[in-house]
Amino acid sequence: MIFTKKNSKIFPIQFLLYLLVFSAITGCKAVGPDYEGSPEMDVPENWNNDLSNEFVEQSDTQKQWWTLLDDPILNDLIDRAAIDNLDAKIALSRVEEARANYGVVEAAKFPQIDAVGDVSRKSNSKSATGEKNTDNYTSIGLDLSWEIDIFGYVRRSIEAADAQLDATIENYRDVMVILYAEIARNYIALRTSQLRLQFALENVKSQRETLNIVNARYSAELVSEVDVLQSEQNLAAAESYVPLFYADIDELFNSLAVLLGKNPGSLNQELKGNKGIPHIPEKTIVMLPREILRQRPDIRKAESRLVQETAEVGIATAEQYPRFNLNGTFGYDARGSDSQFSSNSRYWSFGPNFRWDLFDAGAEESAIKVQDAQLEQARVNYEKTVLTAFEEVENALKSYKEEKQRNASLRASVKAAKKVNKITVARYTSGLIDFQEVQDAERVIFFQEDELAKSDGSLVQFIIQLYKAMGGGWDNTDVPAQEISNEEA
């Protein structure tokens, strides 16, 4: 029923009745499924890999885990990247977009009020009416529309927008976790390449010294020209490695610059020189498997998507039911010299209306099936994300453990190789052995030193990989701008 000026005598009673009915029906449960929590999964109590004394089990990870490497340059790079990285800026902009979208959707639960007005001067046709009249017409008023959310279309839409906002916040955090790890990974790779370059240059120097010894013995007719040629060959081979390391170092310079939102080459002077590979921390925090579920942003994002898709099923279900609105108008129409705001100029109307699709050839049923399928996809994606997280932690722990043993063997091998090389050169100079033994000894020492440098870098890389796998690098206070989500944390 629409209330108008003609039936205004019954307006107060029926208006109160409408308000009572409206209050009752808006308290109805929204149609569609409610989110009942993340899927049950078989979460192990502990990791398969036995943790050594270097690892400490803890329910929380180190937020700024890179500070444990005790490298001020790395700390500074990460601080700058957190502000200037372009992927981070894009992710943050998406958070702001989702916040704005939430505001748009949430506004649907409130009345929509519009001001309307019109001023015109009109003249009628003398031929049609017999006289010529010209008058001024003025109209001003308010239009109101308010959706009565009986079946939960608006509430489910707000739930979906809220979950989408949560997902974009977790995506921002995931971008930051990846960014911190990527900065650290590239930085360690740079320091590793610089150390390997140092060993390559030392090998070139050693080969030149050996060539000088061989030339001296050749001049004294103690060895054949073959020894000289072999020594020259070794020197050329040693020199051939050097450009590869310079190229690798330049690539890492460029990668770090771009990660900081700068032009390639802008960090070359700042990062040049072999500063050494940072030492691994004495103790590394390892979270328990169940704690990973709340710490990794990609898992939290996957759950937010699950919440969103659950709400989307509710939205599709609500489309099968009528949608009701309360509509009203109030204003003044005046003509000519009539007073604009007199009681005679006043008009108003108030009442509900509804829209209900009675036949759509099964489109709404199909829409629900689409959302059910997307909900199932979100559930499977959540499970996959959790399993991937467990896999990454297990792999990092295992890789570190095995590399630690390999590193110890390489260190012992390098120590022995240096002794062998020193003895071999002395014996060759004395004429006790041929050049082949010198050649073999020098080849071994360079290879083992290079492998040790790579291993030292790998140990730190696996620590970085572990912290990234645990979702380290964020907390609940690191998303800029205001919080709108009801369940942000």
Record the SSE blueprint:
Elements: E1 3-4, H1 11-25, E2 55-57, H2 72-84, H3 86-106, E3 112-123, H4 126-129, E4 134-148, H5 153-219, H6 225-259, H7 268-271, E5 284-286, H8 289-295, H9 297-318, E6 323-335, E7 346-355, H10 363-429, H11 435-469
Parallel strand pairs: 2-5
Antiparallel strand pairs: 1-7, 3-4, 4-6, 6-7
Helix pairs in contact: 2-5, 3-5, 5-6, 5-9, 5-11, 9-10, 10-11
Protein name: Outer membrane RND efflux family transporter
Membrane topology: Lipid-anchor
GO cellular component, one term: plasma membrane
What's a quick, concise take on this entry?
This protein is of the alpha+beta class.
Helix content: 55-70%
Rg result: 38 Å
CATH architecture: Up-down Bundle
Question: How confident is the prediction overall: mean pLDDT?
Answer: 88
CATH superfamily: Outer membrane efflux proteins (OEP)
Query: In what range is the share of β-strand residues?
Result: 5-15%
The largest sheet, given as strand count, sense and whether it forms a barrel, is: 5 strands, antiparallel
**Basic shape:** elongated
Strand arrangement within the widest β-sheet reads 1-7-6-4-3
Order of helices and strands: EHEHHEHEHHHEHHEEHH
CATH topology type: Outer membrane efflux proteins (OEP)
Signal peptide: 1-30
Keywords: Coiled coil, Lipoprotein, Membrane, Palmitate, Signal, Transmembrane, Transmembrane beta strand
Coiled coil: 393-420
Subcellular location: Cell membrane
